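Lab notes, practical 5.
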Amino acid sequence: MEITEFVETLRLDGALLANAAEEAGPEARIPACPEWQMRDLVTHIGQIHRWATEFVTKGIEQPQRPAEAPAMDDEELVSWLREGHHHLVLALDSAAADLTAWTFLDAPSPLAFWARRQAHETSVHRVDAQQAAGASLTPLPSAFAVDGIDELLSGFHSRDRSRVRTEVPRTLRVRATDKAGAEWTVHLSQAPPRTVRTGADAERGEAGPPADCTIEGSAEELYLALWNRLPWDTLKITGDDAPARLWQERGGI
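Output from the prediction step:
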């Protein structure tokens, strides 16, 4: 996906998140994060948007923690969220292609990283807000969902902090049924998961060794289930289901 596509998705999902937060009210419970109410979700994403904007606008090259949110009344929260989201979209839209800034996942450039990461951060939390409001989920484009699966598997869970580990090595295959070539093989062990994009091989008829467990579904279903935002009963799981259960128990970020 292009940077402009990520920025446009961020723009749309940020507005939908704010609308759902306004509809649900500050005390609504967040289903995927039971300890959170809507005010906690809005505060979190508002801080993250402002945090990302600092890196993009100032070219900060060292990690730094998000700033604390100001003291606000509940009725001020959503407008504060909208303001931070607006400035992040503007920052990404106007940033130089050769921006230098700190990142924490591999990416073609710092600008590509921040556009992609904030689009997915906002998309997942937009789902949280819509679920809390009891609203229908806005569909995700399959290309965006595939990219998000790739970021989660090849990015987040390649890091030392991933808790998806097993003493006995296992392989987990993740396959999107609605997007050609969208298949990953995740090698599980006592080390951080190692993910290989195997969809191109499968398209050429060069199937590798069978996986211990295969999870299949639409790209959107996989994206939301792997982020623990949808129940896994919408997915088709074949083989040994232990790797799938391991993910459900330990795959949270």
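Observations recorded by the TA: The longest strand covers residues 170-176. Helices lie at 3-24, 38-58, 77-94, 110-133, 142-155, 199-203, 219-226, 242-250.
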